[in-house]
Amino acid sequence: MKNLLNYQSSEYDCGPVTLTNALRYLFDREEIYPDIIKYIMLYCLDSYNEEGEPCKHGTSRTAMLFLANWLNHFGEIKNFPISCQFMSSKDVHIEKGNKIYTALEQGGVVVLRLFLDVAHYVLLTGVEGDNIYLFDPYYEEIDDPNLDDEYSEPGIAFITDQPKRANRLVSIEKLNRVTKGYYEMGPCDKREAMIVFNTLTQKTNE
Fold it and tell me: Is the pTM of this model over 0.90?
């Protein structure tokens, strides 16, 4: 059975929640090893804020790179069908035919760093023409009168009926922007992404 995708419990745990959501999306609950969940939580939330408080600057690029390598090694040792590829900087953009777009077409997911006021991780789960399906772990209610105006900008749509797949549909043009508006990846030197596959369900493009 596939689990519902999760929302974060604090202002800071978008990284581990999104990486766990990648597993929830790709694998049945019965297939997921508990030690994977343990080590995701152990290695994420590794950053300190300007006041020196632990965990309150979220999850670093270093931690995500380490976990991509750790998950690949885990897959080899345990014969668990997972494959991860970490990407950064100018390699992280979305266009038809490139790695991220193709990964989504092939049934993979992408843990993507973008902006939502601050740096934030979301899970890309699918592509439809010029738009990307994603799950944002920061819970918002579409009918909340205090909902930020930025959510109503062109290129952002709420999805309310796909809790195992997506809660937003965002245009590729908006995601690719080098500015720091909602759901924009921002400056190229700050970008990062992790492509994740279940190698048993990965499709090949003919």
Answer: yes
Per residue in 99-141, pLDDT tens? 999 999 999 999 999 999 999 999 999 999 999 999 999 999 9
Write out the two tokens for 95: 């266009």
Tell me if 159 is assigned to some domain.
yes
pLDDT digits (tens, 9 = 90+) for 57-95: 789 999 999 999 999 999 999 999 999 999 999 999 999
Write the DSSP assignment of 50-116 as a string of letters. Answer: TT--BTTT---HHHHHHHHHHHHHHHHHHT--EEEEEEEGGG----TTSHHHHHHHTT-EEEEEEEE
Q: How far is CA 24 from CA 79, 108, 120, 177, in A?
A: 18, 12, 19, 29
CATH of the domain at 70: 3.90.70.10
Give domain status of residue 5, yes or no: no
Residue at 65: amino acid letter? L
Residue among 89, 112, 92 nearest 170 (CA): 112
Residue 206, in any domain of the structure: no
| Number of domains comprising the chain | 1
- The answer to the question of residue 97 being in a domain is yes
Domain limits at 67?
14-198
